Amino acid sequence: RRTRIMVTLPTEVAYNYTLAREMIANGMNCARINCAHDTEEEWALMIQNIRRASASLNNNCKITMDLGGPKVRTGMLEEGPRVVKYRPQKNLRGEVIKECKIWMGPEAHPKSKFPHLPVKLSALEKLKSGDRLYFLDSRNERRELTIAKKTDKGCVAHCFKTCYLETGMKLYKDPDFSSPPLSVGVLPRAESFLTLGKGDLLRLHKDAVPGGSGYKDEKENGVRHAHISCTLEEVFGQVKEGEQVCFDDGKIEGVIQKADQDEILIEITKARKKGSKLRADKGINFPGSHLDIKGLTIKDKKDLAFVVQHADAVNVSFVNRKRDVHDLMTELKKLNAPEGFGIILKIETQKGFDNLAKIMLEAMKTYPVGVMIARGDLAVECGWNNIGRIQREILLLCRAAHIPDIWATQVLENLAKKGVPSRAEMTDAAMAQRADCVMLNKGPHILQAIKMLDVVYKDMELYQDKYVQLWPPIDKATLPGAIRAIGPQ
Predict the structure, then answer these.
(1) Number of Cβ within a 10 Å radius of residue 130
(2) Is there a single domain that holds both residue 281 and residue 303?
């Protein structure tokens, strides 16, 4: 097949050679490593496994690394409580059809996937199968656990009602709580989030102070608005009142009510009826704002030194103008990038799309170069009603320039994450074959997604002749003498 498959590597590939080999064997042509996640040590292990598997299968799988770029994201939130929810499976009538199984012991069970409730082994010595443990959960609801199985390393307990257990909570062998208690050990912290509804106000601030929820007094008057920091300080002072703000790929939208050098006050205009959750490290977009933000951050320059030494190409995020390309090539020259080192320009803003012709002309001063249609942020920036037309225009422009293009974001997303594709995403994946490369994001069922895409594209190969974009290499022997002397450009 002509269309290549790029796949974002999960961290597991660093420690699982078999997974790396199976990804290539199922059809992966290019492995993508996102520098926004993991560490250099893990990147090196990923690359090592991919190179080894590629050689073993005699399949030249390329490696690209994604620079984070000046991505605007939400900052950290206040730490959540050390509480865990245990919930049995119920039918439509609310009847329990399958109990929740919990592993109780000092360490997590090495083989079982049951959730772990840390309890000292000495506290479990006198328990036996059939015993019950009674407690008040974090909501002050009476609950109990039934010991189903006892081993020398811990116990398997059954929970028949939804309960919330917290670090330090006491469990008793008798229902009146008079026996010596068992103490729950240190549980992981629950992930914090802000719940935002339509009409709520949100403070976006420059200071890297952990964000927190808002609250009201007894008369329902606002006392403190929900607040969260913004990771890119350059935003403050460039946005204006009345401009739109989108969070988490457009799941939450708002309008700026007030803006100054240190803080932006936003009124939420779009959210779920019961409120939408906003978590840390989620994307923020300003579709109507004219932001002057440089392409390479300090972290990008540090990561680029690693990328040049270990990868085949670099994916450059948020390319907005030709200057961003020039700055990148200047940095690559400083790092003595090897000949043939590739550059992939990610187009994910309205400004990047508007300046695409100039960006491509600047990038064509080097070789090889490609363009990625990053449809996630691009759809939010350009509007949902425009994304279909815009991605098509980018494809046509790349074809005219003989520049390879990559169709990215949410391709077979349900299949990769849930194991079952939707009809719409199957059609989207089939239409994506007109691009030179299609990118899949990681998920628990990523092998199934790679195999599915590989089969679909092989079956449709005969239908794609009129969309051919990967042009065959020029044979020097067929060129006129003058051109043959300098070789194909």
Answers:
(1) 9
(2) no
